[in-house]
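## tool: complex_structure
## caller: assistant
## args:
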Amino acid sequence: MIRATKLSKFYGGKRALGPVSFEIADGETVGFLGLNGAGKTTALRILASDLRPSSGSIEVGGVDAVADPHAVRKRIGFLPENPPLYTEMVVADYIRFAGELRGMTSAELKKRLPEVLDVAALNGVADDPIDTLSHGFRQRVGLAQAIIHNPQFLILDEPTRGLDPVQIVEMRNLIHDLKQNHTVLISSHILTEISQTCDRLLVLDKGKLVGSGSESELSKHEGDIGQITVTVRSPSGDDPKAQITKVLGAIASVTKVGEPYAQGGGFTYSLSTSKDVRAEVSRAIVEAKLDLLKLDYARSELENTFIRLVGGADASN
Amino acid sequence: MRATSIIYKRELGRYLRSPIGWIIAAAALLVEGILFQSQALSGEQLSAIVLERYFYFASGIPTFCGVLLAFRLLAEERQNHSMVLLKTSPIRDTEIVLGKFFAALTFMSIIFVLSIYMPLLVKVNGKITFAQIFVGYFGMFLLGSATLAIGMFASALTKHQIVAALLGAVFVLIMCMLFPLAKRLDSPVRDVLEQVDLWWIHFQNGFMRGIINLKDVIYYLAVTYFFLLLAVKTLEAKRWE
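## result:
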């Protein structure tokens, strides 16, 4: 189990994280979700014993990570945002070097290296210098160094960053396989990715933990919150923006009318709603003698939850 | 110290396989050979004087190559993000610094070995002893150890390799200019600065002339220890930044 208590980190006088407290049980796959600068990387670097926290405590498998970081590092595999590669080295030599640094013996490496090359699908490039590999393969090499010593906890910071769609799917499958044998912590700012991979989410915003739970737990309070996108035109050709805003704003359950923008010969509005009010919106527009050109309704629970947790419209911009 | 050995092997392999190390070695040997031929061998001199002159110019190898071999050691790791691998492995910062330091020192020793034909030529054609040659190289080894440690400290300060190289060069230059500077000052500041000088007092007045003074040996070991310790503490401090 990982237990963080009132963890915080300052860079100079600037608070990057905390205070945050959370627990991660053995075998869980937990996602750290947040916008850029939310403190995800700082949190993961502290968990990986790369950084020391400014205050607070952290226990990894019952070991105090501040007092005994070496014991913690033996149990953790870390893939940072930029894989820590020696690009002049051959793939197999690099992974062997990473294993030696983690205290593995030659006999252990001899047995483990083929397994890791197999898991990370690196058999075809094992003898290639890393600087000749594509970004996707480099990411796999980074993952291989993180799992070579078969750590109990695997920490992956934005593992699909910079990958193409095919590579993203491959990496996702790889992480899915790793979940069977490791407690996995992943950070991402991509909602769909993290919701597909993780059992539980920790939502960070401006260094604070603003939400925690499974996707369904986080979104259960959202009800039918959704977003209606409507494109309207005035038959007379006048500029009807003020009138339309007033008409739409008067509809019950419309909580916010966004700034309009010109599109398709009319003006498009985004409406935040607490329930599905497409009928009311279309009726109000027709009754105001305006032309309804287009109307869409989107209800994405996790996305709404995320936007609500990290500060509403600021997050969507 | 197992981790020191692992890092040492990787780092030494890097020097031996990459062109950069050999380019530094070739440039150093070329300049040294030219100076040996044009300066040390000029005129009719006693062979002991020729050997002194040789070590006078040859001490440029540890002075300049120390900085050139060391500036990238830690800065490059941070610039390329590979330092994370070392810092999240169960090894101490001391082991990281020592592994890299000994690898650079070994490569510098290889350059020394490649230059040994010059004093051997003096030995064959003159009346010097192997002991004189050994003392001169021992002094260069200690001087190189000190400049490498200074270069490593500079490398620990920043992730920008160029900045690290400039910082290292400035530190070494300042420490080599303390003696000329001290001559303009009064005692006791003069006495202190003279003793802290990296080259004039401890190398030129001792090892270069075939004399081993214990205080010179201790001085170079102390400078090496001091700057390696600073490099280790700098790495540790960066975890708290």
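## assistant note: The interface with chain A takes residues 2-3, 6-7, 10, 14, 17-18, 80-92, 239-241 of chain B (CB under 8 Å). The longest helix of chain B spans residues 130-157. Handing back to user.
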